[in-house]
Amino acid sequence: MSLDHLISDTYRALSELDPGSSINLIQGLNLAIVCDQASDSVDRQVYEPLFCLVLQGRKEIVIGPRRIEMRPGSALIVSHDVPVTTRVVEGTQQHPYLALVTRLDIAAIQSLYVEVAHELAPASTTSCIDAGEADEALIEAMQRLLAIRKRSLEAKVLGPLIHREIVFRLLQSHHGGMLREVLRFDGYAGRIAHAVRHIQDHYRERLVVSELAALSAMSLSAFHQQFKTVTGHSPLQYQKILRILEARRLLERGNKTVTDVALDVGYQSATQFSREFSREFGHPPRLRKAAEPASLSKH
Question: Does residue 296 form part of some domain?
């Protein structure tokens, strides 16, 4: 199965969806088509655990000090919820950046890992995001998943089986090491994943890193080191990014003042919030709110 065949099938699927959207969800398949054009601006967002197969164009992903370039045939694996900066660097209206994305439910694939763990190599990466070349078997599995999109019974019965095969092949891949690590019952990556979820659930609250380290059954120094190694950020930086991104979302809705938004996301000082927002996005929050109409929303 060549990438060209999958590109043709993806364009056919895209023609059945919303042509004006950059992210198109295929209902019932846990599959999305990303179709976008190159831009000078960057996007700050949080990637959830996912697998992304790039079909054409190029995209740049930055996590902490690392820079990952995605090109045709690149297979991206994300094992933890992680803040990233992204930019499409190659893609036009006639020849857009095109990719297939499927979400990875870490809890749901635990049983598969248990079955095959004894046959898998140890993790060769310490980061929660890594990319490598997709092999023919992985490309073929994605093509079969896309092919059943309009056959509801097959999507219901075969869809989960194909997803299981895709995860199996990701677990076997050279760059799937952190995905293997996060599934280990006694692995440090799993403990960091629990810490990440705790921060996400409580990002508005004051974060005491020593308490989070204790919850993760790690010493404070080891927790700091492992958290930053895996996510590219310190725990406090991670929390700040979540606050800032949520604040941006609230400002785009346009129905709250800057001070209200600052308080909603956990800041005690609107001045500090404005300073950190400006540092992150290059302009104060008031300009963001004034520049975008209240009806505009991102999905």
Answer: no
pLDDT digits (tens, 9 = 90+) for 36-85: 999 998 999 999 999 999 999 999 999 988 899 999 999 999 999 999 99
C-alpha torsion sign, points 58, 62, 65, 66: negative
Q: Is 295 left (phi over 0), alpha (psi -120 to 50) or beta?
A: alpha
Torsion of CA 154, 105, 59, 277, to 10 degrees: 140
4: part of which helix (H) or strand (E)? helix 3-15
Structure tokens at 233: 């950020």
Q: How many domains does the chain have?
A: 3
Question: Which alpha helices (DSSP H) does 174-219 contain, by range?
Answer: 177-183, 188-201, 209-215
DSSP E strand boundaries for 79-125? 82-90, 97-103
- Residue 135 has phi, psi (to 5 degrees) of -90, 175
Give the three-class secondary structure for 74: strand
Q: What is the CATH number of the domain that holds 264?
A: 1.10.10.60
The pTM assigned to this predicted structure is 0.86
193/130 same-domain check? no
Which ranges of the chain have pLDDT less than 50?
A: 290-299
